[in-house]
Amino acid sequence: MLRPSFAALLTVILSTSVANAWFRLPCTLPMVQERIDPIVNPNQVPSQHVHTVHGGINFFSNTTYDTLRQSSCTNCLVRQDLSNYWFPKLYFNDRAKGTFEAVPNGGLLVYYQNRGTNDVANGGKGLKVSSPRFRMISGDPSARDKQYARGQGSQAELRERAIEWACLGPKSVYSFDLNPKQGFPTTNCPYGLNARIHMPACWDGVNLDSADHKSHVAHLSGLDNGSCPSTHPVGLIRLFYEVTWDVDAFASRWKESDGWPFVYATGDPTGHSWHGDFLNGWDVDVLQRAIDTCNSTPDQLNGIVDACPIFNIASQADAGKCKKTKSSVTETVDGVLTKLPGCNPLQRGPGAATLYTDANCPK
Ligand SMILES: *[C@@H]1O[C@H](CO)[C@@H](O)[C@H](O)[C@H]1NC(C)=O
Ligand SMILES: *[C@@H]1O[C@H](CO)[C@@H](O)[C@H](O)[C@H]1NC(C)=O
């Protein structure tokens, strides 16, 4: 469990960190954590690495929009949104003992933002909700470095820039812009390790998915503002994920001189494999009506989700009860482990990591 002081601080930091959010969707402590990925590894049990999952409870390897819409609950606060949001789980690598320990995250905050020249506030035609069966990912589980000069502006560079980390401390130290090659921080983060991911906000308007789960969408030219490329002209409401892990709980167990000890479930000690997945489960008419109408009062413009009367909002306590108690995979992913679940040996890069399956795991 996160210590109460940590959770309280988190709320303050998060609520001031991104201006002009259209609304912020809080998701409570994870709905389930397991090796399942209905986008990248559909119908495969288990998938490659452990994910931390939020949203509708019907999360399985074979989940579709239609089965997700039948979810009995979601651990995020808007009841009409049964989407799934997931990302790799973080572990502490105790190098002296050779073990891995799960690091708790304090939930997920999903910002739904009205950005770019398609937004009516910027003179555009208005932002759209993607179609019901839409899905996408941002980030790359095999990445261990960045390839492009920051700000170069190609879609490939924007994809790299879309993943960020911040080391939170008493002065709200945001370290992610300091060094374009840097992934994870190098020091303890007293208020937590914060990771963010920008999802693409431009759509080709036709395909609900693509082979790499990315090509049917594109980033805005300025990542969080600007225009859509002509190949992907439809402006979507923009999703931005923010997660904070309580790395400070492990502060007494490592020294800076030994190097940063936290790794993603992908076997990544660099941070560059950070990625996020979105499987749409919205009542799309509700979201479109909210986008079109909940944009006038001060609270609506400040991103307060309760200020949009179209939404049916659950309490934190009620949403927090929505947890998948029986995982689709019989393996332990929490507590102290002797190896990362699946076949995820630590791969430091800088070249792309090999994504092993259980079947081709090197001995
Ligand atoms: C999807 O997977 C779940 C869990 O493994 C299973 O209970 C369900 O029957 C599957 N549904 C279909 C349509 O195959
Ligand atoms: C985005 O750019 C437009 C101009 O194209 C500007 O009016 C607007 O304030 C910008 N929004 C943000 C959040 O920077």
UniProtKB/TrEMBL annotation:
InterPro entries, A to Z: DUF1996 (IPR018535)
Top-level lineage group: Eukaryota
UniProt keyword annotations, A-Z: Signal
Domain DUF1996 span(s) in chain numbering: 37-282
Signal sequence residues: 1-21
Protein name as catalogued: DUF1996 domain-containing protein
